[in-house]
Every structure is written in C-alpha cells, then in structure tokens.
Design brief:
Elements (H helix, E strand, L loop, with lengths): L1 H25 L3 E8 L6 E2 L3 E9 L14 E18 L2 E16 L3 E5 L3 E2 L2 E2 L3 E6 L23 E3 L6 E7 L3 E3 L4 E9 L3 E7 L4 E2 L2 E6 L7 E5 L2 E15 L3 E6 L3 E13 L3 E14 L3 E6 L9 E13 L5 E2 L4 E11 L9 H4 L4 E3 L3 E8 L4 E13 L3 E5 L2 E7 L4 E7 L2 E6 L37 H28 L2 H7 L1 H17 L3 H19 L9 H10 L4 H19 L5 H24 L7
Parallel strand pairs: 2-9, 12-22, 23-30, 24-32
Antiparallel strand pairs: 1-3, 3-5, 4-5, 6-9, 7-8, 10-21, 11-13, 13-18, 14-20, 15-19, 16-18, 17-18, 19-22, 20-21, 23-25, 25-28, 26-28, 27-28, 29-32, 30-31
Length: 615
C-alpha cells in the first residue's frame, strides 16, 4: 500500500513538472498577428472599422507603427494590454511578459490582402490574410447622424457613436397644456457602461414658442432603473420649467450631448479564462423630440385678466400710519404662488385710486425659485403715492384675476383696501395765499440810438455751422454703421477670422487654472481651446466636430499630414492626461506649451494655404 502511494506521488510531481515545462515553452519569445472585424461584424467591408492585434511575448522591444496596411487606413495605434506571470521550477523563478498592441484601421479598398511578417528585435511574426468586401447596403431602419429624429417620445435616438448601452430620454410633465401653463421638461441619461467620466452639452435645447426657466434641481448621484427589460444607471442631467406662448402644436428639439465613458471589452485567455480590459469611449447622443398640444385660455377672457396662469394670492399692506398732503407715502402689494409669476401685471392703480391720490410707478422686489415642478415664490410691488389735498379718502380693493389650470377656470384674489385720513401740509394748495402780480406802468427811457443796419443770422457762418456739424456726424455714423454691418453680416466668417483671438483668450484662462494647479478645469479649457479653434477656423458646426471631420477639412486646407497627425495626437494626449489618476504641474506646463505651438503652427499653415476660402 505504501509503495503504491509513493508511485502516485511521483507521477503527480512528474505531471506538475511537465505542465511547468509546457508553460515555459508556451511563453517562449514570439510575435503574433491577428485580424478581427469591428464589433458585431463577421466580415470586413469597405468603410468598416477593423483591428489588428500584435502580441509580443518575452521581448524587450515594441513593434513599429504600421503605416502601410494594404487596402486600409490607419486610425490609431496604441498598447492596450499587459500580462506577466511567474513560474517556479525546482526553485528557479522564471518570469514571462506579454504586451498587446492594437492597430485600428478603416477599410478603404475592396480586395484580398496579406500583411506581415513584422519584426520585433530578431523575432519575426506570422503573416495574416484578410479580405475586404464591397460596402454593405444602408439599412433604412438603423438610426444614423443624418436620419430624422423620431417622433415617438418613448423611443431613444442614437447620434454619432450612440448605442443601446447609452441613450437619452426627454420627458414632459404634460403633453397637453394651456398657454402660459408651467410644464416640466427633463432629460434623463441611461447608461450600462462601467463609468461616466464627462457629460457636456453644446447648447440648450430648442424651445421655439416657449419662455424657459432652467432648474438646478438635477441628479447629484446615479439611480438604477429597468427599461425594456434591461437595468441602466440613470441620472437627470437637465431640467427646465417652460411656459408655452402660443396655441397649436409646439415642438421641443433636444440638443447633442458629448459623453465620455469607460467601455469594458472581454476576451478569453487560454490559462486564466475570461478577462476584460477597460477602454475610453466617446459618444454623441441626443434625446427624442417632443410635441406639445397647446390650448388657448377659455373664452371669454375677463377684461381685467392679469396674464397669470397658475395659483396665486394678492395681499396688500400700508406701512405708513400718518398721511400729510404733498408728502409721499407708500402702499405695498405682494403676489405669491406658483406658475408664470414673473409675467403677471397688476391693474393700473392711477385709474382706480381717487384723483386726490397721485400714484407713481412702483419698485419691485422678487424672491422667485425655479423648483422641480414649477416656478414659485413672491414678488413685492412698492407703490409711492402723494395726497394732493387734506381729507378722508378710500383706497379701493385691488383684484388679481388669473387662470387656474387645476380647476380650469378664472379665479380672483383680492387685496383689501384702506380708508386714510390726510392732514393738511405746509405746501397744500388750500393753504397758499393768492399772489397779486404788480406791474410798474412807467416805461424806462431809451438811452442809446437804434441801429439802422441789420444783418440776419442766416448769413453768418456760425448759423450754418450748427447744421454742418450734425450733418457731418450723421454721414460718418452712417458710413461706420454700414461698414460694421458688412463686416459682421457673415457670422461664420467672422468667427473664423476671430478664431485665433478666441483661442488665446481660452489659453489665458487655462494658464490661470495651471497656476492654481486646477487640473480638471485646466484640461477642460485646453480641450475647448483646441476644438473651438479648429471648429471656428474651419467653419464646422459644434455638432459635427470629430477627429475624422477635422482631419479631412485640414487636409483640404493644404495642412501637412504631420501637422494633422500632431493635432489629433495632442487631443488624445490631453484627454488621456485629464482622466489620468495622477499628474503634475510639469505635465500641465508641457501640455500648455504643446497647445500654444500647435496653435501657432496651424495659424501659419492657414496663412500659407493655397485655398483662400474653405467650402
């Protein structure tokens, strides 16, 4: 029995040594190439994105950047993976290291191709064969950047790189409302990615036919929600209180948001099974459009309607207790409630107050809050009035007529009136005595002779000078104004001419952040400087800014390939440094100097460009 156990133990040790030797052979020096189509693809077609993976095992060197891939154009090349292992065989430690490099290509020409071998040091790789097929026919049901937006408010729309793992949904509190009724418009983000690092909007949504109040009541943390049988992390990233101004069907068009996320890609390792790597990814997404059916207020509209739609209350107060003729006093009216409170008008008090009380324009003080579902608060109107005579006078009640959408009827809030006693003041009309005007009937004698020579002023130079000077000012103003209109008529061309000035302004702001060691704001300002400069200079709308568009437009302006590649690499480096876990002032200073040099080089390239105007 003991001999049998010893034999089994010896066999087990031999098997372990064999596995270790096999592992050592597997980690021998090698360079391996492999081709894979883009995500969700089985074949490569013209216009597709595909990848070539280069695995380098137990070698000190790294592969050269592939720049001659047949039938394709290189977009990116970077190291994407690093794996190391330690093996102990009979007390001897052996380390194996494997690096993975990924080249991203865009297929441009149909055909059968091969690539390789490549060399890393003295080790050569295998040769890979691949085929690029004809372009795939367009699928009309697939959303694209040029496709029209969906009219279904529950159907998300994907723009640019948007996909089912991240989208936006716009919602409205009511699809049917009255004119001036407060509605809540929200934009909610849905994401199933590992992390969201940046969310930026190019502009506000288009609220044609609405008055808009932006609410700060948005999500401060992520929630989780199940939508279409899939769980997403959600957050409300925008909320507006909007008031329709006209009847009919009004549309709200959402704007494009740029979202930076971490995408996790999974792969299979022969020894460790399923592994994953996190990659940064940028998406451009837009929420769905919404249509609001706006109804007019019920007829007949009261003659003293204040324009208020909501729920309001009007109160009054009389701060002064003693009133004297020809001395100013005040009365305060306060409107409180929720709705379009900022757009309510009070009745004309001069028409309802007694004529003996002269009323002046009020001063106002508002305390209004844009909340989660409406605009609420109070507005105080302080009216000054002056009694012109002494006596007892009645300040009448003041009515505020508004429409309440909850009850679907017009309602009235009444501020109470007052009866006041006015004492006679010093400057009262009744206390003034009659003034008798006395004239001396005796005329003074003429002491000098009258001149017989009279020269009218119209013949003098000074007379005409009063006409010449205003006419000259008018002509100069007209010419200057026409010149100003001419130079500012083309706003796109104006922005292109001022692109350098705007970029320098952003760089000065970035320098302030750099001196304050504010890394996040510094890199944000550098990114805005780079994108803003090329967008304005090349006249590219913000919604169409992308690396491919910018590279193509720069090439059309005769900018060199090296400069274009340098610009794209600088953008990648800035975005990488922004999200890097650590950094220093030297890193920011280097990025700043590279950005200034790139701006100067591009500006010089534009001046030397053979193309006078970019089309």
């Amino acid at each position: 029995m003991f001999r049998k156990r010893r034999t089994s133990l010896s066999g087990l040790i031999g098997m372990i040594i064999g596995i270790a030797l096999f592992t050592g052979d597997l980690y021998a020096q090698s360079v391996t190439l492999s081709i894979s189509p883009g995500r969700g693809k089985r074949e490569i077609s013209v216009g597709d994105i595909f990848y070539m993976s280069v695995q380098v095992e137990d070698l000190d060197g790294s592969p050269a950047k592939p720049d001659n891939m047949p039938g394709a154009k290189l977009l990116y090349f970077e190291r994407t993976g690093h794996f190391s292992s330690m093996t102990n065989i009979s007390g001897k430690m052996t380390q194996s290291v494997r690096y993975t490099y990924t080249a991203t290509f865009k297929a441009e020409k149909e055909g059968q191709y091969s690539y390789g071998p490549i060399s890393v040091g003295s080790v050569k790789s295998n040769t890979v064969n691949y085929a690029i097929g004809a372009p795939m026919p367009a699928q009309p049901q697939t959303p694209s950047p040029s496709a029209g937006r969906s009219s279904d408010p529950d159907k998300p729309e994907y723009i640019g790189k948007g996909d089912g793992n991240l989208f936006l949904r716009a919602e409205i509190s009511q699809s049917s409302a009255y004119v001036q009724q407060a509605l809540v418009y929200t934009v909610k983000l849905y994401s199933s990615y590992d992390a969201i690092k940046f969310i930026g909007a190019t502009e506000s949504p288009k609220f044609d036919g609405f008055v808009v109040e932006e609410s700060k009541d948005i999500s401060e943390s992520l929630d989780y929600e199940t939508y279409n049988d899939k769980t997403y992390a959600t957050a409300i990233i925008a909320r507006y209180i909007i008031f329709p101004q006209q009847e009919g069907k009004l549309q709200i068009k959402g704007n494009t948001y740029t979202v930076s996320v971490d995408e996790r890609e999974f792969y299979h390792d022969p020894f460790f099974g399923g592994l994953s790597v996190s990659r940064p990814k940028q998406l451009n997404v837009t929420p769905n459009e919404l249509t609001i059916n706006v109804k007019g207020l019920p007829k007949p509209i009261p003659a003293d309607f204040s324009g208020g739609v909501g729920n309001f209350k009007l109160t009054s107060s009389l701060p002064d207790q003693k009133f004297v003729s020809n001395q100013a006093a005040s009365i305060v009216y306060n409107i409180s409630g929720s709705g379009n409170i900022k757009y309510i008008t009070l009745p004309n008090l001069s028409q309802i107050f007694p004529p003996e009380l002269e009323v002046y324009s009020p001063s106002s003080e508002s305390n209004v809050n844009v909340g989660r579902s409406t605009v609420s608060g109070d507005i105080k109107y302080d009216y000054s009035f002056m009694p012109l005579e002494s006596g007892t006078f009645k300040i009448p009640d003041v009515k505020l007529v508004y429409f309440n959408p909850d009850s679907n009827r017009y309602e009235t809030s009444v501020a109470k009136g007052y009866t006041i006693g006015v004492e006679q003041g010093k400057g009262s009309d009744k206390s003034q005595s009659n003034i008798k005007t006395r004239f001396n009937p005796t005329l003074l004698p003429v002491v000098s002779k009258l001149s017989t020579i009279h020269r009218p002023y119209v013949y003098g130079f000074l007379y005409w000078l009063f006409y010449i000077i205003p006419l000259g000012i008018l002509i100069v103003s007209y010419v200057s104004y026409r010149s100003y209109l001419s130079s500012h008529s083309d706003l796109i061309a104006l922005k292109s001419r001022k692109a350098g000035k705007m970029a320098r302004k952003r760089l000065r702001k970035a320098m302030i952040y750099m001196k304050g060691n504010d890394k996040e704001n510094f890199y944000d300002e550098i990114i805005r400087s780079l994108w803003g400069y090329v967008g304005d200079k090349l006249k590219i709308p913000t919604s169409e800014l992308s690396r491919e568009n910018v590279a193509g437009k720069l090439a059309m302006r005769d900018i060199s390939d090296n400069m274009i590649e340098g610009f794209i690499n600088l953008l990648d480096e800035v975005e990488y440094e922004k999200y890097a876990p650590s950094g220093s002032a030297n890193d920011m200073n280097t990025i700043y100097e590279q950005t200034v040099d790139m701006m100067n080089n591009l500006e010089e390239g534009f001046r030397k460009s053979k193309t006078a105007e970019y089309v």
